[in-house]
Amino acid sequence: NAGVTQTPKFRVLKTGQSMTLLCAQDMNHEYMYWYRQDPGMGLRLIHYSVGEGTTAKGEVPDGYNVSRLKKQNFLLGLESAAPSQTSVYFCASSRTSGLDNEQFFGPGTRLTVL
Amino acid sequence: DAKTTQPNSMESNEEEPVHLPCNHSTISGTDYIHWYRQLPSQGPEYVIHGLTSNVNNRMASLAIAEDRKSSTLILHRATLRDAAVYYCILRRRSGNTPLVFGKGTRLSVIA
After folding, report:
1. pLDDT recorded at residue B22
2. I need a surface site. Which of B1, B48, B58, B80 has the fewest CB within 10 A?
């Protein structure tokens, strides 16, 4: 039982390049989330999904797109990377959105945009 | 959304209890109080949550004030592995409520 995994762990991009971050969970969770964390800050929600085929915007969605084609996977795309998107990206999942439900987080992807 | 206030940092000696405070004076009656922690270079992990009554689990205890305007996360015997940033988060009952992280409290544990 791997929990939540993220690919890749590290990536360096040049401004304007595109990339996709992959998140996978093996807990059969309905809900999945993408957060970013800038140095010295808490996590901020980018996008989330309440089930296969559905996505919704979070607090900081601009410059990102997401897809949830399979229940176990949640992809985060950057179409044209900018230096402001240099950050650590965390994926999370939860069984439901219930107020007493915990979220499980992946180990993070450290992205640098030059 | 109701906000939480936590000290920026705290320090503890190893094997001593640690009390991490959180103020949430604008909490509503149906807000749950969640605590997560983030170890260095890792994603956050769930610690504990509660609504009104004090809660205990294998990791920690959560003491909630009678008026619910504050709470305290209690680590009974701090270890070096407990050095982390601890986040106190309120989850409001209004549809899907993703976690909203503040800056948390950075706990240092001294051997």
Report:
1. 97
2. B58
* Contact check, Cβ <8 Å, B46/A100: no
Distance CA B50, CA B90 (A): 10
Instruction: Give DSSP secondary structure letters for chain A.
Output: ---EEEE-SEEEE-TT--EEEEEEESS--SEEEEEEE-TTS-EEEEEEEEETTEEEE-SS-TT-EEE-SSTTEEEEEESS--GGG-EEEEEEEES---TTPPPEE---EEEEE-
Residue of A23, A102, A110 best to disrupt the B interface, most CBs of B under 10 A = A102
List, for residues A62-85, the tens digit of each pLDDT value: 999 999 999 999 999 999 999 999
pLDDT tens string A20-35: 999 999 999 999 999 9
Provide the token pair at A73. 């996977």
Per DSSP, the three-state class of B80 is helix
Q: Cα separation of A72 and A93, whole Å?
A: 9
The pLDDT of residue B99 is 80
